[in-house]
Amino acid sequence: MTSPYPIVTMIVILAAALTLAAGLIWVERRLLALWQDRYGPNRVGPFGLLQVLADMIKIFFKEDWIPPFADKAVFIVAPAVILVTVLMSFAVVPFAPGIIISDLNVGLLFVLGMSSLGVYSVVLAGWASENKYALLGGVRAAAQMMSYEVFMGLALMGVVLLAGSFNLTSIVTAQRHVWFVVPQFIGFVLFLIAGVAETRRLPFDLPEAESELIAGFHSEYSGMKFGMFFVGEYLGVILISCLITILFFGGWLGPVLPPIVWFLIKMMFFICFFILLRAALPRPRFDQLMSWGWKVMLPLALANLLVTGAVALVWSS
Amino acid sequence: MLSMIRTIWYVFLHMFHRRVTVQYPDEQPYLAPRYRGRIILSRDPDGGERCVACYLCAAACPVDCIALQATEDSTGRRYPEFFRINFSRCIFCGFCEEACPTYAIQLTPDFEMSEYQRPNLVYEKEDLLISGPGKYPGYNFWRVSGVQIGGKDKGEAENEGRPVDLHSLLP
Question: Which of A28, A158, A298, A300 is buried deepest, with most CB atoms within 10 A?
């Protein structure tokens, strides 16, 4: 299923993902404004689209400052880690038949593993900044990721059971008759919530909670290093939206329109939903977040897995 | 949990609400007639300066942004020799307008007075004086007050009787 020109695919996906991540800054600001009865950036270029370009030029010219008390090497590596791990995950995402960099047979596990590695970025950034707010943010991120990744994986096992494969392409093709959101609705809700927590987006942005921790783990970051955290976060949003599309909404499957268009429509829908969540929900307290994760989501995920397994067993026999 | 979903739905419905932003440079905002903006000095209906340089505005000003010097012309009419408002200090509270006994100093519905250089925000009398009477068209202080000036003797003002000859009151 991989394309005949892997290098071309690679470059195209990389460029598209990074452009989309930058464009999301504009999309998010415009959508937030729409839901708050404002206009948002609409001055630079048509519909304010060039605002992204202006912001990028600005951020490239910002002073790249490393605090003298920081752990220099780790401080520099941390923002790179988040970009690398998220971009690596894009390698196994099937956008359409043939548009995939590497059709791994354990694609889903690879994505989960990479998103787990992404935690290092946040924790190391918090640690290397030598700043109490940054450290608190890093510690929060570690605890949050750990508890939400557990049931994130468990919530997906129902899909794996139904599809009988960890390969993302096979999971999509297994949804030819019915999207997995129908039999796995609880799994979908769980994964959505875990996905928001995993990308550290509002309402689960406790690692960077502005009102309590200044900017959490990236308090000390400036210039393009901060920009990389930013782009990493948006790439994470795109990745989670891609995964929801692939795992629960039949990926590129759909009538009339070409597969890639269907994929992008579904993906954009979930990106917009992420932004809607940000516009609508307040941030929970940290202990609420943890008890919600361990006392509600984890048992639900286990129960969902149990029932799915039982049904699948009865079905096959 | 249900309340969260309801919240999300209500926020989504805001998509179809009217936006409250006034797109300012393209679209002028409505300013009330009594809006407290740029300060002006008005003139009598017959064109003379209304300001009698009484210093009440300067005394009322909480930030001391008004400076003036009183003087008199040959007919005995008081007027400010210079009148200076430092708009980089002014807080547009309108106290000067309330203090003014002659309706001379008035705040207008205009706020577009940005400058690139701070000294340009200091307005002199020629910048402040307008050619009309502003908010009080018919009013002329000198015509209603009992003060004697050139061309108007005591008792010649509107609704004013002739001054009483004190000696006529003697028994």
Answer: A158
Q: What is residue A4's predicted lDDT score, i.e. its pLDDT? A: 67
Whether residues B19 and A280 touch (CB distance < 8 A) is answered with no
* Residue of A29, A35, A289 to mutate when probing chain B, most B C-beta within 10 A: A35
Kindly state whether A38 is in contact with chain B, defined as any CB-CB distance less than 8 angstroms: yes
Of all residues in chain B, the one with the smallest CA distance to A280 is B8
What is the distance between the alpha carbons of residues A157 and A267, in angstroms, rounded to a whole number?
21
pLDDT at residue A259, as a whole number? 83
Average pLDDT, chain A: 85
Quick check: A2 pLDDT over 60? no
| Nearest Cα residue in chain A from B26 | A43
ipTM, 2 decimals?
0.76
Range A177-187 average pLDDT: 83
Domain-embedded: residue B69:
yes
Is A42 a member of any domain?
Answer: no
Q: Is residue A50 domain-resident?
A: no
Average pLDDT on B110-133 reads 90
Note whether residue A21 is domain-resident. Answer: no
At how many degrees (to 10) do helices A6-35 and A223-248 cross? 100
Q: Which domain holds residue B101?
A: 24-135
Query: Does B36 fall in a domain?
Result: yes
CB contact under 8 Å between A37 and B14, yes or no, is yes
Domain containing A115: what range? Answer: 65-316
- φ/ψ (deg, to 5) at B151: 85, -5
Contact A95, A252 (CB under 8 A): yes
Nearest to B8 among A36, A39, A276 (CB): A276
Split into its structural domains, chain B has a count of 1
- CATH code at position B93: 3.30.70.3270
* pLDDT tens digits, A269-287: 999 998 998 888 888 888 8
Count up the domains in chain A and report the number.
1
Q: Establish how many alpha carbons lie within 13 A of residue A90's alpha carbon, considering only the half-sphere containing its beta carbon.
A: 27
DSSP characters for A159-209? HHHHHT-S-HHHHHHTTSSS-TTTTTHHHHHHHHHHHHHHTT-TTS-GGG-
Q: Looking at the domain assignment, is residue A286 inside a domain?
A: yes
Mean pLDDT of A60-75: 86
A186 touches chain B (CB under 8 A): no
- Residue B145 domain-assigned? no
Which of chain B's residues have a Cβ under 8 Å away from the Cβ of A38?
19-21
